[in-house]
Write a structure and sequence with these properties.
Number of domains: 2
Strand order of the largest sheet: 3-2-1-4
CATH class of the largest domain: Alpha Beta
Shape: elongated
Strand content: 15-25%
Radius of gyration: 16 Å
Number of strands: 4
Order of helices and strands: EEEHEHHHH
Largest sheet: 4 strands, antiparallel
Number of helices: 5
């Protein structure tokens, strides 16, 4: 899945920009200028998505980007963690079950899906393969 969410940038009368995400109504932020607002948007997006993971809820699927919206992409390691989390939920796996497949503890699996914890990208990739998933990394012109 591509974790690219549409955001809406609204210029504020007193300067700066207000940012909101149609797919994540709780994700609201702003910035001094467009560049700052987009940097804050990325952090806000990851924080909002973390709440879904922490609460054991389905992560909202990004809607298509409309002409008036700006795409915000989560960092690659976060996208990999989100995909692992989604696969675990879809397959109704416990973290203990996946840990047994990989020879890891349930707490190690929890760290692999915790968006706030640093994780080795290769270890996430191995865990994804264990749930029948693979990664494709793509780049694009900005």
């Amino acid at each position: 899945m591509r974790y690219v969410y549409p955001c809406i940038l609204e210029a504020e009368h007193e300067g700066g920009f207000f940012v909101r995400f149609p797919d994540l109504p709780e994700a609201l932020t702003g910035g001094r200028d467009r560049e700052d607002a987009l940097a804050m948007a990325k952090d806000c997006l990851v924080s909002a998505l973390s709440l879904y993971v922490r609460n054991g809820e389905d992560v909202p699927i990004p809607s298509p980007i409309r002409d008036s919206q700006v795409p915000v992409t989560v960092p690659a390691v976060i996208a990999a963690k989100l995909d692992l989390y989604a696969a675990i939920r879809q397959q109704c796996l416990s973290k203990t079950d996946l840990g047994e497949r990989l020879g890891l503890s349930a707490s190690a699996i929890s760290r692999l899906t915790d968006l706030g914890q640093p994780s080795n990208f290769e270890r996430i990739e191995i865990a994804l393969r264990a749930v029948g998933r693979g990664l494709v990394v793509e780049s694009h012109a900005l």
